[in-house]
Amino acid sequence: MDAFKSTLQEWLGELAGKENLWIAEVFIVVFCTLIVALVVSTFLNKLKKKSLATKTLWDDAFFHSLAAPAKWFVWVLGLTTAATIASKHSESAILEAIATVRHVGYIVIVTWFVTGFISKAEKNLIDPEYSRQPMDRTTAMALGKLLRISVIITAMLVALQSLGYSISGVLAFGGIGGIAVGFAAKDLLANFFGGLMVYLDRPFAVGDWIRSPDKNIEGVVEDIGWRQTRIRTFDKRPLYVPNATFTQISVENPSRMQHRRIYETVGIRYDDATKMAGIVADVKAMLVEHEAIDHNNTLIVNFNGFASSSLDFFIYCFTHTTDWIEFHEIKQDVLLKVLKIIEKHEAECAFPTSTLHVPDGIQLMQAEN
């Protein structure tokens, strides 16, 4: 190898002259960098394809995030080496900063790799293809964002140190400037800590249906960011809510309900008053026998009021299902059976009516033609 290198240098020296031999060396370094980068990229892409075929969580994340940074690592190493050779024969001030550029380049590439690995691992952790028990999406997103922020801040501090700045000075300035920034960006900080509380307390997660009795907020949570939460309303419009809002309002989470309630009032005619007891008893028996009704929860059917034009009884029970569509199918079935029970007792549902009583002493006069 040494013999080949010396022979190549002699040949290039004869072509370019001894004083310009460094130009040939730079060319060789750049050419070798191109070859090595091509080999590394090809090799890692093959490993990436093999790892994707195995559906292994960490291997997939590692090789997926390594391919591009590894290629650029080779280029940074090769180009800075070529620049170092050139700097020995040039008086350019730019070439004197090669060592600093190399260090900063390494920091950027490592940061790129680590943040990419975290992002891919985050996606794999919530994918059922990679895990029998996928991690909760909200938790995975929170951990992923926290780790990426930590890596980026650390990389920035190390890069500043490489550029000649004192980290202690930067941290001191950040402590003093943080007070001013805190006053200027209090809303941004409020939203940040609001998002943090959502991640810690977990009143809702991505995919949950939520609503607030205090605000006109209702829909399905699509994303919980550090500043705002995106909710898809039922008319398919995106609603962006600042996270600080959730620290000041009440939030209902219907997605976590265990049952759905049927609460209906049914009225029959006053003429069917003697049939009320039998109707109530049969309706209650029907609910007790209904497979979709949860008999371990409150189940009430009672006559409870004299309305203006009807005798009212109410139905109060819970279904096993919480699915919105299935619940309405069950509710429809229950109400249709109630109507059949009323018909079986030869009674009728009441509707608003008025009766006019005319005293005996009042005579109606016929109009003369």
From TrEMBL:
Pfam families: MS_channel_1st, MS_channel_2nd, MS_channel_3rd. Keywords: Cell membrane, Membrane, Transmembrane, Transmembrane helix. Residues 145-186 form the Mechanosensitive ion channel transmembrane helices 2/3 domain. The keyword Cell membrane applies. The keyword Transmembrane helix applies. Coiled coil: none annotated. It is found in: Cell membrane. Signal peptide: none annotated. The chain crosses the membrane at residues 20-40, 61-85, 97-118, 139-159, 165-185. InterPro entries: LSM_dom_sf (IPR010920), MS_channel_1st (IPR049142), MS_channel_C (IPR049278), MscS_beta-dom_sf (IPR023408), MscS_channel_2nd (IPR006685), MscS_channel_C_sf (IPR011066), MscS_channel_TM-2 (IPR011014), YnaI-like (IPR045042). Its main location: membrane. GO terms for molecular function: mechanosensitive monoatomic ion channel activity. One of its GO terms (cellular component) is plasma membrane. It is a multi-pass membrane protein. It comes from the Bacteria. Residues 265-348 form the Mechanosensitive ion channel MscS C-terminal domain. Residues 187-256 form the Mechanosensitive ion channel MscS domain. Belongs to the MscS (TC 1.A.23) family. This is Mechanosensitive ion channel family protein. It comes from Saccharophagus degradans. The lineage of its organism: Bacteria, Pseudomonadati, Pseudomonadota, Gammaproteobacteria, Cellvibrionales.
